[in-house]
Amino acid sequence: MSRTRSRPRGLLSMCMMAGLLATSIATAAAPMPRFEVDPSWPRVPAHWKLGDVSSVAVDQDDNTWILHRPRTLKPEDAASAAPAVLEFDRDGKFIRAWGGPGQGYEWPEREHGIHVDFRGNVWIGGNNCAGLNIAGLKPVADDAILKFTREGRFQLQIGRSGGSMGNGDTANVHRAADAWVHRPTNELFVADGYGNTRVIVFDAATGKYKRHWGAFGKAPAGPDNCVQNPPKSFVDGQGPEHFNIVHALRVSNDGLVYVADRENRRVQVFTTGGKYLRQLIRKDEPFARDLALSTDRAQQFLYVGGGDGIFVVERKSMEVLGMIKVPGQLGTGHHLAVDSKGNLYIAQTGAGMQKLVFKGWTAGGFR
Q: Tell me, what's the pLDDT at 236?
């Protein structure tokens, strides 16, 4: 089901009063979250430098985890590269860092996604492709998902570097972009991703394959593009029959799977079994770059990166309520995370990372 933009009314005056939300496209009044940038977050040790920050996660203690790409640093800064994984407490104080090649596992050539599950396990994936020919990286596809303890001790590898046999392969992923462990079933849902065009599910304890599906809940299909290949035009209708970069994925507490189909500019919603339910599609601007669920009890909001900010979507109806676009914000983000206080975290490749502090609600919402 497609959603279209409704015409905002009284937007300018309301935005001036709120000072935080730049646009509203909801058809009914709704309370809206307000944010502002925390310029002091985080406190990275001064002797370290970060490459492209690709992903961010928040654990059960509200500690924030950052994944960056040390090999993207300039040669003169390489000796000062921080380890790929950094943990900070809720105030932004550095706790620990680890990551990189080691014994018994295949570290991704191009770090992409990080997730910390409800037990504190840290999941890492990458999106390198042999044909990208990126300087300093081996010409191999990142076709594995890695599981570590929070201290960085290796636990499990699903798949093998360069091992993918395509969308029907149940042993390997193919340049997976994101992952999420669903607590009630302890299942690992993987946005798979840059090479494949599917969601794939594994047992988070053993790595055993469970199931997979493509767009609209159908068998996954579509080309394996080493280089991104966005559509040249967008026509009316529900969009292509296959995903085009499954870039982010979240599973709500009530068992709905939200998938960011980035290049097709849509979010599709499924049951945990893979049954297609509905979608939100916005063809007039970049959309579905990343996802996060609000952490209120009902998880009322879905945050979706797009345009030049982050859209606020009412999760149950999939109606767009407005946009987060505050002074100093990095933009749409590459990956997003939310803590228990409602604060929003942005990882933005090429720009760094950022904490948007939750400042309460707009009075009465927008119309």
A: 79
235: burial class by Cβ within 10 Å (0-12, 13-18, 19+)? exposed
Q: Is the peptide bond before 45 cis (omega within 30 degrees of 0)?
A: no
Inter-residue contact 270 to 256 (CB < 8 Å): yes
Place of tokens 């309460």: 360
Picking from 247, 335, 350, the residue whose alpha carbon sits closest to that of residue 64 is 335
Cβ-Cβ contacts under 8 Å for 33 (sequence gap 6 or more): 294, 301, 312, 324, 342, 358, 360, 361
pLDDT above 80 (res 291):
yes
> 120: burial class by Cβ within 10 Å (0-12, 13-18, 19+)?
middle
pLDDT digits (tens, 9 = 90+) for 221-269: 988 989 888 888 887 789 999 999 999 999 999 999 999 999 999 999 9
Beta bridge partners of 224: none
**Is the Cα dihedral 57, 98, 91, 353 positive or negative?**
negative
Local structure of 18: helix, strand or coil: helix
Q: What DSSP line would sit under 70-106, residue for residue?
A: GGGS-GGGGGGBPPSEEEE-TTSBEEEEE-SSBTTB-
CA 338-342-347 angle, 5° bins? 30
Is residue 210 exposed (0-12), middle (13-18) or buried (19+ Cβ within 10 Å)?
middle
245 Cβ contact partners less than 8 Å away, ≥ 6 residues apart = 177, 193, 194, 228, 261, 262, 263
For 88, residues 6+ apart whose C-beta sits below 8 A from its C-beta are: 41, 42, 43, 63, 64, 65, 66, 94, 95
Where b means 16+ CB within 10 Å and e means fewer, 35-54 reads bbbbeebbebeeeebbbbbb
Q: Between the CA of residue 14 and those of 261, 310, 337, what are the distances in Å? A: 32, 18, 27
Instruction: Compute CA distances 295 → 39, 299, 304, 343, whole Å.
Output: 23, 5, 15, 9
Q: Distance (Å, rounded) from C-alpha 169 to C-alpha 193?
A: 13
Question: Distance between CA atoms of 333 and 271, rounded to whole angstroms?
Answer: 26
Predicted TM-score (pTM) of the model is 0.90
Q: Using CA atoms, how far apart are residues 296 and 332, in angstroms rounded to an integer?
A: 22
Residues 183 and 190: their CA atoms lie apart, in Å, by 14
- Which residues have CB under 8 Å from 152's CB, separation 6+? 85, 96, 98, 99, 122
